Known about the structure:
The radius of gyration is 17 Å and the shape is globular. The chain contains 7 helices and 7 strands, in the order H-E-E-E-E-H-E-H-H-H-E-E-H-H. It is an alpha+beta fold. Helix 2 packs across helix 4. The protein has helices at residues 2-21, 80-89, 104-110, 138-148, 152-157, 176-195, 206-217; strands at 31-36, 39-42, 61-64, 69-71, 95-99, 159-164, 168-173.
Amino acid sequence: MDDLIHATRARIAELGRLMYERYLTDASGGNISARVGDLVCITPRYAGSKYQWRLRPEQVIVADLNGQKLAGEGEISRESKVHFRLLREFPDGQAVVHGHPRHVMVFAMAGRPITPVLENMLKFGVIQVCRFAPAHSDALAENIADGLRGQEAVIRKQAAAVIVPWHGLFVLGKDLEAAFDAAERIEVNAQCILFSRLLPGEPVDPEAIHARLREQKA
């Protein structure tokens, strides 16, 4: 178990750097967590603002499923309530990736869902917007959990995600790699929708693209 905990902490630190470099999150926040048995490894508070996501494995917190810190440097993130809630409620969800992806944030600001316009996004369906609640609150954890309910099969297959208005993106996946992969696919899909507005000719309709994709895949 100790070796698995160490490997998970190292992988979380590595993925945090990748997320920052690939604009899947920013210096103001984001979190990554993964369940290992009855324990949770989760990024510490200020991972972005103080450390710019250059974390050492030893900085990644180890806690129990109730959020009690057992090891690691620094404090548990204030956003950890969401992570522990999701990892307790959804048994097939073993990792949570929360970020502020550059183009997804436009949809979060506007409170609009992200429609799949790429083939590799079809299995996730439309990424919906959950109800607003203040950051770091129990209500936010409840609203995000509510937004993921009914998507258990998608989580079991890879991952499911929700947009939090004025906040960012939360992805619950079957493992760390699945959640990271889904977060990047959603970000690229959001970028395609936004950049398509710059194409000459008639405006691209994401709903029409989605319908055509589904028809071709049927």
